[in-house]
Amino acid sequence: MGIYGEFKVTNVYPRYGSDGAVIGTVVSIKQDNPYFAVMDYILNGDQTSKDHDDLLRQIKRQEFYTNFSEFAQQEIVKEIDNANTKSNSNAEAIEKINKLTHTVILNSVMSDGVKYGVVYKQFAEQLPAATDGMKIKAQDIFTVNDPSHTELDGEGKLVIVQANREFTYAGQPASEFKENGYFGQNGIALSYPFAKENTPTQ
């Protein structure tokens, strides 16, 4: 029986479509520690012949892309460890870690993958906040404070922004970075605020 972390695969069986073809694979998993949990996951296609460890890795990746759960943290920690091992200096390690963090954050907000406001807030707090006179380069991601924002799900008042061109920040409000704002309309920089539709339905 495969084991990945504290979870074990207890059952694997195909899921059939209306035409009788296999459209998915149901994987039942169980955890005994640190608490008891049983759940089913549906993976695409027929994967009944896959190794249990491989199925568990796919489930963990699915959790990463949908809910930013344990796997995301493990992957970031793994990359940090790799950077520290391979780098010849702390500066190089820090640069690699920052690039990884920024890539994860940008991919998440651009793909509407942030389901929870508290996760968006944690992402925003990892980025540099724009200050008056700050030189911003193309592809940089940073935050702008939006004091007028009404929180929807604990996301805070920082808005994540990506620059498309180099510019100097001069205290512009968050509204200028929206699609209909000056920076957004002119392709200079665009904000990716937390959206209510990204929150999970109850």
Total DSSP helices: 5
| Quantity of strands, as a count | 9
In total, how many domains does the architecture comprise? 3
Strand content: 15-25%
Tell me about the largest β-sheet: 4 strands, antiparallel
| Topology pattern, helix = H, strand = E | EEEEHHHHEEEEHE
Biggest sheet, spatial arrangement of strands: 1-2-3-4
Q: Give the radius of gyration.
A: 21 Å
Annotate the secondary structure layout:
Elements: E1 3-4, E2 7-16, E3 22-31, E4 37-44, H1 52-67, H2 70-86, H3 90-110, H4 117-125, E5 135-136, E6 141-145, E7 158-163, E8 167-168, H5 182-185, E9 189-192
Antiparallel strand pairs: 1-2, 2-3, 3-4, 5-8, 6-7, 7-9
Helix pairs in contact: 2-3
What does the model show?
With 202 residues, this protein is an alpha+beta fold. The chain folds into 3 domains: 3-64; 72-110; 117-196, no CATH class. The protein has helices at residues 52-67, 70-86, 90-110, 117-125, 182-185, and strands at 3-4, 7-16, 22-31, 37-44, 135-136, 141-145, 158-163, 167-168, 189-192. A 4-stranded antiparallel sheet has the order 1-2-3-4. Helix 2 (70-86) runs antiparallel to helix 3. The radius of gyration is 21 Å and the shape is elongated. Residues 198-202 have low confidence and may be disordered.
